[in-house]
Amino acid sequence: MALSKLQRRTRIKKRVRKIISGTNEMPRLSVFRSNKEIYAQVIDDVSGKTLVYASSGEKEIHSKKGTKIEKAAIVGKAIAERATKAGVVKVAFDRNGYLYHGRVKSLAEAAREGGLQF
Q: Which of 33, 70, 100, 117 could bridge to 38 as Cys pair (CB 3.0-4.6 Å)?
C-alpha cells in the first residue's frame, strides 16, 4: 500500500536527521511549512535550545502583501538577519522532509542572500 504524504515526509525526515545535527558552532536551520504559514528556526541540538526563529505569522511579516513564496523569502531574510545578530553565520539546512522546491527553496535562497552559509 502506498504511503501517505505525512508518512513519506516523516520517513525522509528521519533519514536526513540521522546525518544533520546542530552544534554550537554550526546550528541547524529547520523549516516547517503549513498550508498558510512558514516557520524557520535555528536550533542547537546539543543543548536543545532554539537560538532564533522567524515566522510568516509575525505582525511585521504577516501585514505585508504578497504570495506565500514571497512571504517565505521575507522569512528567510528575517531569519538570516536575526541569526547574524546572534553570532551565527554557518548553519546546516534541514528541509524537514519537504522537497527543495517552492516556498522552502525561496526561504533558503533568501537566507543565503541575507548572509547565512550552508
A: 33
Q: In the sheet that 38-44 helps form, which strands lie side by side, from edge to edge?
A: 49-55, 38-44, 28-33, 92-94
> What is the spatial distance between Cα 95 and Cα 93, in angstroms, rounded to a whole number?
6
CA distances from 71 to 37, 103, 113, 114, 115 (A): 9, 8, 15, 15, 18
Q: What is the pLDDT of residue 90?
A: 95
| Residue 13 backbone dihedrals phi, psi, to 5 degrees | -60, -45
pTM (2 d.p.): 0.90
At residue 29, does pLDDT exceed 90?
yes
Q: Which CATH class is domain 5-113?
A: alpha beta
Cβ atoms 45, 24 nearer than 8 A: no
